[in-house]
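To: structure subgroup
Subject: Chain for Friday's discussion

All,

I'm putting the inputs and outputs inline so they're searchable in the archive.
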Amino acid sequence: MEAEASRSAETARTMADPGGLLEDERLRLVLLCAHPRLSREAAAALSLRLVLGVPTEDVARLFLVSTPTMAARLTRARKRLADVRPDVPTGEALAERVGVVADVAYLAFTAGYAPGSGADPLRAELAGEAVRLVRVLREVLPEPVAEVDALLALVLLQHSRRDARVADGRLVLLPEQDRSRWHLEEIGEALALLRPLVHAPPAPYLLQALIAAEHAIAPSSEATAWDRIVARYDELLVLRDSPVVRLNRAVALAEAQGPATGLAALDGVALPGHRLPAARAELLARLGRTAEARTAYDTAIALCDNAAEADHLRRRRDAGLG
């Protein structure tokens, strides 16, 4: 029975990839999930859950929906692929699925770099696997794709800070990080990928990578070119307006033009979870609006399902507000 199962598995692999071009099992599975029967969002969500093992609640957070809603979407997606042959696409069909694989890698990296639940401040293994997935995707493409190069640069820049992001089991945000613990070789690789793309047409991963690069090349948080970062977020809003982009732009505005400007930019932003009230709390505290800041911190802590991040918010609240 085991021998028969082994032969069947080998036959399926040969049918799926007769040329042996896609030997990486995770990439093959993501490509299979990225079937035309599914929307880009459904394919990405299914890949995150089934291929990369991201918990359903964290997948839901990434897509800004409730856990029951995401669970129902995943069930529907699995049913739609129930009778699909396990054929890995090649040629034009492969090119059509590149965007989904890129989205999966980006979202998996986010789930590893900033976990929405659990006790860990960082899931470095998951983030590292997402980086590897982008590398493999880039290698199997018949010709370079600018957004894939930009995505690799983006995740490398973020991943280069992994050792500085945690100290004594606690989360450390960018302004307080020990930059001597950043992985300079990964930063160098990312910057080399970005140099030919600086004058390329704006695209979402490229703009995010250029923002991350500004942090990487700055000698300190205080010396960061915040005006350039705000300008990049303005470009990103044109291409992909979302509550997350608006939140990040408001934080950058606060650094460039002061906390009052950043707080005003948060008006009208609706985002589930703890990150919006956490940003409000920080800006309110900087403005000396202590009572409002404490309320916002308490709201953020109550909504935060990641133990390390909740602890970080408590320490910020207690240290800043007495």
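Points worth raising on Friday:
Confidence is low (pLDDT under 50) at residues 1-21.
The first strand starts at residue 117 and ends at 118.

D.
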